[in-house]
From TrEMBL:
One of its GO terms (molecular function) is carboxylic ester hydrolase activity. Serine hydrolase involved in the detoxification of formaldehyde. One of its GO terms (biological process) is formaldehyde catabolic process. Keywords: Cytoplasm, Hydrolase, Serine esterase. The lineage of its organism: Eukaryota, Metazoa, Chordata, Craniata, Vertebrata. This is S-formylglutathione hydrolase. GO terms for cellular component: cytosol. The active site is at 149 (charge relay system), 226 (charge relay system), 260 (charge relay system). Its EC number is 3.1.2.12. InterPro entries: AB_hydrolase_fold, Esterase-like, S-formylglutathione_hydrol. It comes from Phoxinus phoxinus. Its main location: cytoplasm. Belongs to the esterase D family. Pfam families: Esterase (PF00756). It is found in: Cytoplasm.
Length: 282
């Protein structure tokens, strides 16, 4: 599949690049960012997938999180896709910030008019890894996943729905129980319809309750001053309770004074990359 390089910048002795391609899953042009550490010049490297949150593109993480230095040191490729299809000319896709463009929620939509293009779950778990493994020095056996907010939800469900596929998972301020919060209910109603049993297929708390597979060590950082924590959009306690029932190890760190922004992510991204490196480089 043809890739077009959009940009390339030397960074922490490696290269931060952005590529564009025609997506077969999403039926549109998509961009993704990829950081290639210096180690990638001579050998295959594990891949850390980063899923961003509402309104983001492939740019937010690579320009704000400061992940490149740690990725360079640990020899890890970082791939950051966009958060939704773009330019599909679907009526209503630009109407709100938390549904449609920039808000794909990492599900495969089943409802018109979304179901043809809004297939971010399959894009992230199938099409994108195939593309990365066939075009870059990636070790196909070693991948992990992380994300923020809507992307934290995405990372958790990808790991829980595919036991063994990802060697590690972590999240910053994830939407942990979308079927119980306003963001999730809005998105799932639109993309998945009114049958709430289909919503459960994309809810980390529900998926944790029935998880069976290789042990998954989950790392979650959450800012204590996050306005979306206090407005009950994130609901981490529900996920922690489900994981504790199933004896899924979770390190949950409530970080004093931090909010929902990339300043928070920047502050703890090195810990997350180190967590992933422990499993990816084992």
């Amino acid at each position: 599949m043809a890739l077009t390089q959009v940009s390339s910048n030397k960074c922490s002795d490696g290269y931060q690049k952005v590529f564009e391609h025609d997506s077969s899953e999403l039926k549109c042009k998509m961009k993704f960012a990829i950081y290639l550490p210096p180690k990638a010049e001579s050998s295959k490297c594990p891949v850390f997938y980063w899923l961003s949150g509402l309104t983001c593109t492939e740019q937010n993480f690579i320009t704000k999180a400061g992940s490149q230095q740690a990725a360079s040191e640990h020899g890890i490729i970082i791939v950051a896709p966009d958060t939704s299809p773009r330019g599909c000319n679907i009526e209503g896709e630009e109407e709100s910030w938390d549904f449609g463009t920039g808000a794909g929620f990492y599900v495969n939509a089943t409802q018109e008019p979304w179901k043809t293009n809004y297939r971010m779950y399959s894009y992230v778990t199938e099409e994108l890894p195939r593309l990365i493994n066939s075009n870059f020095p990636a070790d196909p056996e070693k991948m992990s996943i992380s994300g923020h907010s809507m992307g934290g939800h995405g990372a958790l469900i990808c790991a829980l729905k595919n036991p063994g596929k990802y060697k590690a998972v972590s999240a910053f301020a994830p939407i942990c129980n979308p079927i119980q919060c306003a963001w999730g209910q809005k998105a799932f109603s639109g993309y998945l319809g009114s049958d709430k049993s289909t919503w459960e297929l994309y809810d980390a708390t529900v998926l944790a309750e029935s998880y069976s597979g290789p042990e998954l060590d989950i790392l979650i950082d959450q800012g204590r001053d996050d306005q979306f924590l206090s407005s009950s959009q994130l609901l981490p306690d529900n996920l922690i309770a489900a994981c504790s029932k199933k004896k899924i190890p979770v390190v949950f760190r409530l970080q004093q004074g931090y909010d929902h922004s990339y300043f928070f992510i920047f502050s703890f991204i090195n810990d997350h990359i180190k967590h992933h490196a422990k499993y990816l480089n084992a």
